[in-house]
């Protein structure tokens, strides 16, 4: 069996030879004495045209009556057709039907809406749109690994179950057990009394991980910092969870994050690394997915290719939060309307982020040095005592795709912060230890992988870049 991508790669060599290709029908056309099957096997965006002759193909009638999505194995001769639109076609000798398609196949209609396709999560990977998006997602993931591996970063897997809330926002999903032999119990008597049939009232939901309270992680950062203090440069790439009840086009309850952490690095080192990484991923995707991008550029976002080229070759803007607020205040004075009022100290809203990156700077923008009160406890306090060495990367069309900072490496300052915020120092004792034993300046960031894929594809909703999105009200299949 040869994959279609191989036929394109080695067409010169395979021309005139017998090959077998297995895939699914995109269309079947019957012209009476001959017919065409457009076949795709998922190995590349391009299809294979299979030509059938009534005379030569024993089951011509069976094949030419197929409709919908049928699984076929086709054997024939690869004929080079340099003057036609496709560089080759397969002249079929035998076609075996492995699976036919029931008449109620939901994707009969061309150009189904993305909203309809969200109700068909199990079938939507078969459409051109999702074939393009998920190949780009895969190529981008591999490019991220290459970028960090080429720079000698160590890939660390951080735990998904944890007791610490890295971002301190309380947006954690509790982990619990349904095992009646190992219940998250209030007392032994309750277990005894229930006879194995526990009710919610018998259970202490705050002690449900073998007698401890535990949650799904919102970020692997704190664990990545441990490893950075041993390996220097590290990165994580894994799922994270947020119990944010926000039903937006860019929030999911389960999403993937890339979190590099670099020892002996400051805020500028983080921004330089992040900018180089994003350009590397963009360039790799443009190189490896031209057909996918061409389709997306035509049907999803007409400015996509121009934008990717532009971003890959120009510098990102960098502006302090204080400057950014002045820019927004000036926009308000000039008559621009925001839903949410602007003043120093506010957490920038998506509308503000988008104004900065789309209207003002017109390119990806790092906003730096945010007020300490709106950022997480681990960010390094600046000398002004009011702002922290944080930076978010904002991009046109989306807003924030990266959040990061230089970390507070001074034990006394960090202890004071934890105390001020009313956090439990016991819970962060390992993290504080890192400041006791060989602490050093370090910085890191978190790139939301789905937001990057949205940026790379022009797709406007996070539900359409996740293979099986977990958003508010959606966890089936
Ligand atoms: O800004 P956040 O919350 O930063 C952190 O979690 C840090 N601990 C990262 C670090 O420094 N190692 O999240 C980082 C990024 C955001 O910029 C956004 O792209 C993405 O994660 N993100 C989400 N993506 C999808 N759905 C959500 N609910 C998201 N929340 C954050
Ligand atoms: Mg953030």
CATH architecture of the largest domain: 2-Layer Sandwich
How many domains make up the coordinates? Answer: 3
What is the name of the CATH topology of the largest domain?
Answer: BirA Bifunctional Protein, domain 2
3D shape: globular
Query: What's the CATH H-level superfamily name of the largest domain?
Result: Bira Bifunctional Protein, Domain 2
H/I helix tally:
15
Provide the residue-averaged pLDDT.
94
Identify the CATH class of the largest domain: Alpha Beta
Major β-sheet annotation: 8 strands, mixed
Unreliable stretches covering 5 or more consecutive residues: none
Q: How would you spell out the order of helices and strands?
A: HHEEEHEEHHEEHEHEEHHHEHHEEEHHEH
Give the bound compounds: 4-amino-1,4-dioxobutan-2-aminium adenosine-5'-monophosphate, magnesium ion
Strand content: 15-25%
End-to-end separation in angstroms reads 31 Å
Helical content, roughly? 25-40%
């Amino acid at each position: 069996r040869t994959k279609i991508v191989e036929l394109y790669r080695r067409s010169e060599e395979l021309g005139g030879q017998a090959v077998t290709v297995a895939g699914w029908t995109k269309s079947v056309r019957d012209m009476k004495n001959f017919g065409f099957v457009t076949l795709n096997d998922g190995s590349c965006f391009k299809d294979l045209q299979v030509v059938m002759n009534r005379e030569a193909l024993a089951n011509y009638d069976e094949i030419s009556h197929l409709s919908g999505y049928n699984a076929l194995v086709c054997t024939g001769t690869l004929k080079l057709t340099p003057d036609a639109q496709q560089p080759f076609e397969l002249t079929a000798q035998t076609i075996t039907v492995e699976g036919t398609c029931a008449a109620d196949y939901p994707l009969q209609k061309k150009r189904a809406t993305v909203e309809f396709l969200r109700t068909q999560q199990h079938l939507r990977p078969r459409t051109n749109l999702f074939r393009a998006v998920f190949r780009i997602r895969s190529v981008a993931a591999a490019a991220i690994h290459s970028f960090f591996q080429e720079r000698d970063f160590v890939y660390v897997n951080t735990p998904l179950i944890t007791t610490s809330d890295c971002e301190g926002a309380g947006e954690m999903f509790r982990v619990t057990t349904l095992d009646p032999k190992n219940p998250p119990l209030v007392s032994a008597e309750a277990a005894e009394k229930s006879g194995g049939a526990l009710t919610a009232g018998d259970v202490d939901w705050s002690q449900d991980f073998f007698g401890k309270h535990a949650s799904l992680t919102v970020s692997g950062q704190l664990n990545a910092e441990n490893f950075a203090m041993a390996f220097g440069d590290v990165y994580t790439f894994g799922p994270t969870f947020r119990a944010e009840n926000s039903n937006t086009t860019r929030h999911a309850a389960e999403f993937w994050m890339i979190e590099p952490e670099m020892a002996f690095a400051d805020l500028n080192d983080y921004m330089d690394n992040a900018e180089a990484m994003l350009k590397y991923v963009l360039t790799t995707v443009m190189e490896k997915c031209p057909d996918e991008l061409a389709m997306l550029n035509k049907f999803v976002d007409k400015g996509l290719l121009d934008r990717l080229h532009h971003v890959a070759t120009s510098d990102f803007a960098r502006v302090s939060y204080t400057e950014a607020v002045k820019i927004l205040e000036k926009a308000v004075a000039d008559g621009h309307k925001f839903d949410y009022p602007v003043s120093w100290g506010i957490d920038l809203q998506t509308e503000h982020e988008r104004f900065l990156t789309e209207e003002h700077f017109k390119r990806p923008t790092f906003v730096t040095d945010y007020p300490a009160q709106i950022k997480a406890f681990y960010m390094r306090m600046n000398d002004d005592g009011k702002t922290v060495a944080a930076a978010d990367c904002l991009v046109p069309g989306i807003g924030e795709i990266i959040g990061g900072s230089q970390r507070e490496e001074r034990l006394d300052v960090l202890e004071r912060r934890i105390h001020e915020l009313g956090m439990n120092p016991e819970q962060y004792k390992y993290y504080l230890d890192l400041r006791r034993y060989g602490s050093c300046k370090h910085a890191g960031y978190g790139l939301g992988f789905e937001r990057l894929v949205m940026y790379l594809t022009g797709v406007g909703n996070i539900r359409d870049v996740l293979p099986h999105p977990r958003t508010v009200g959606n966890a089936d299949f």
